[in-house]
Amino acid sequence: MDRTVIAYVIYLVVSVALTVWVARTLSRNGRIFLADVLRGNEKLADAVNHLLVVGFYLVNLGFVALYLGDDETIEDTRGIFEALSTKLGVVLLVLGVMHLGNVYVLNKIRRRGVMEREQLPPVGPQEWIAPTAGA
Length: 135
Fold this sequence. Notes:
Distance between the termini: 84 Å
Shape: rod-shaped
Number of strands: 0
Largest sheet: none
Structural class: mainly alpha
Number of helices: 3
Order of helices and strands: HHH
Strand content: under 5%
Mean pLDDT: 83
């Protein structure tokens, strides 16, 4: 079997496995964050979480597929390792950037929700609360 094909197979297996692992980890841990962002609306948090995971898979697996091709022919075992380290390194960087982008956007949404909650006065403008004892 050609060494280039071996490198392609290893690249695809490792890249897909990394993408699935990162997506599952983000989904599992991000659900709690989304529930907080969406004020405890569990059904909406699950739906948004699922949509984010699907988008994550589409973008990352699309990138992995597009980045597969290479004009160089791998001559020896050292070339396999060099090609894999470059390709997998770029895939890991893209996964990291996607993760940071998701966290940034969700944090902006969360901050906006917190700001909206803080703007509501604890007592309506025309309401009155009796003073507590010892105040």
